[in-house]
Amino acid sequence: xxxxxxxxxxxxxxxxxxxxxxxxxxxxxxxxxxxxxxxxxxxxxxxxxxxxxxxxxxxxxxxxxxxxxxxxxxxxxxxxxxxxxxxxxxxxxxxxxxxxxxxxxxxxxxxxxxxxxxxxxxxxxxxxxxxxxx
Length: 134
Hints:
mainly alpha, 74% helix
């Protein structure tokens, strides 16, 4: 029903955080030494997370459209029913499916960021060692 709203709200929050971080990065000076994870800026990492969350939200919304749970006229969430039961059903689905999807997306993004940072760090380390040999 409304589980796609969890990822959408998280994407909006990450988008706001991305703009704040980007503004802070413009003020900051370049680091003098290379540190793990410093090659890709955090604003870019947050942009990847934002795109991932929007993608997850659209996938869940598409799944609801395919199953006929969303309509273009009120009530938009047709499987919700009416009254207090509808709100209860929506909150339960948002708390189970929506949060599970959000956690899966965060985990996939985190693993991807760590993997990219690790590979960049190893690449930098090899190039520094190669310069020492020369």
